[in-house]
Amino acid sequence: MDVALVLTHDCNLGCGYCYAGAKFNRRMPEQVVDRALELAFADGSPEVQVSFFGGEPLLAWDALVDAARKARSMAGRRGVALRMSVTTNGTLLTQERAAVLEDLDVYVGLSIDGVRQAHEAGRPKIGGGSSFDETLRGLDVLLSRGRPFETISVVTPTNARWLGESVAFLLGRGVPRLGLNPCYEAWFDDEALARWEAGLERAADEMIDCFRRGRIVSINVFDNKILAALKGGLAPEDRCSLGTRMVAVAPSGNLYPCERLVGEDEGTRWVMGTVFDGVRVRGEACARGPVNAECDGCGERSRCTSFCACANLAETGRTDVAGGTQCWHERTTGRIADRIAATLWSERNVPFLAWFYGRLAGLPEAGATTASSESHPSPGPTGGPDARPPVRSIPRHRTDGRRHLDVLR
């Protein structure tokens, strides 16, 4: 079971695209934390994921640390593998706090939208003013410690113009793993889509350059496409787990299918139950898709992520209908990912082969020296039966990924 704890509705930033709604000081009581952790371990799964969100979860630092310690203790007593993560804006991260998170083995995702212009376009302090310098200090704390982490950048129509520059900035600073998360709630016109595409092309060039210099890096929108191509398509476990394998817990104790649906915890539409009464309605009741007729026959369908119910809801208002911007993004990132893979495969780039084929073979990810989601319909292109499938010029994984690593020897 994967359980996401929304530790507080409060935040010190006022991001214009935040899906968490209004910010106010309501934090998760200890009894709710305890019941949430009991829920996480209740089904006897051999592996448990506990994630911490907000608001800004580091505003509830003591509750976060207490919950992480309890989860670690519960996992130890039960012999269960435990993965923990926290998503933070980084402004409250210090060397001391980073050390505590390391001791508890809590993986960190830090939200920064890129260069100063990109970041300041959407992530101001709650009372106004720039948060960039404080976020950058938090990023430098993580970089100084040499542990795996990732950055999370939300791509909007406003900041897309700086996307390529932002990726170059973050990779140049030493970030090992980048998440580029589209803001599907926003309207991307043709000009914004063109800027976005140019930024993705530059991001691909930066990624290729890193691998050529012997440095393994990860950019989620490309990694996911390449891995899916190698596997011959997305596996069931790669797909949306809305309300099935995971639940999100609001400070009140209400249960939601995903942390993106908690919001201000005022409605009942998405409430699945409470930590006190258990799950009453499973996420299977949520309509899933995409049911779009134009998806039939699309060459990208086998590795398309338009099944994400929350992304669909953000853009079209329905969990089972994908929008034009999402379709454009899937097709564009697929094409660019294939260019990355074809280029590095043709060069028999050793770090590339180790990173992608190594993961398929179940090898440790230690090579990733230091590998990660925020509407209106867009006028961008949509898929259809005449959509050309992407060119995949690298061998797919078959029965044993290790055999593809022979070129490393």
Structure in words:
With 409 residues, the chain is of the alpha/beta class. The protein is 36% helix and 12% strand. An 11-stranded mixed sheet has the order 7-6-5-4-3-2-1-8-9-10-11. Helix 1 runs parallel beside helix 2, helix 6 (163-173) packs parallel to helix 7 and helix 8 (220-231) crosses helix 10. The longest helix is centred in the middle third of the chain and has 23 residues, at 190-212. The chain is globular and about 55 Å long. The two termini are 39 Å apart.
List the helices and strands and how they pair.
Layout: E1 2-6, H1 30-41, E2 47-53, H2 61-78, E3 81-88, H3 95-103, E4 106-111, H4 116-120, H5 132-145, E5 150-155, H6 163-173, E6 177-182, H7 190-212, E7 218-219, H8 220-231, E8 246-249, E9 254-256, E10 273-274, E11 278-279, H9 309-316, H10 324-346, H11 350-360
Parallel strand pairs: 1-2, 1-8, 2-3, 3-4, 4-5, 5-6, 6-7
Antiparallel strand pairs: 8-9, 9-10, 10-11
Highlighted features:
single chain; 409 residues; alpha/beta; eleven-stranded mixed β-sheet; 36% helix; 12% strand; globular; disordered C terminus
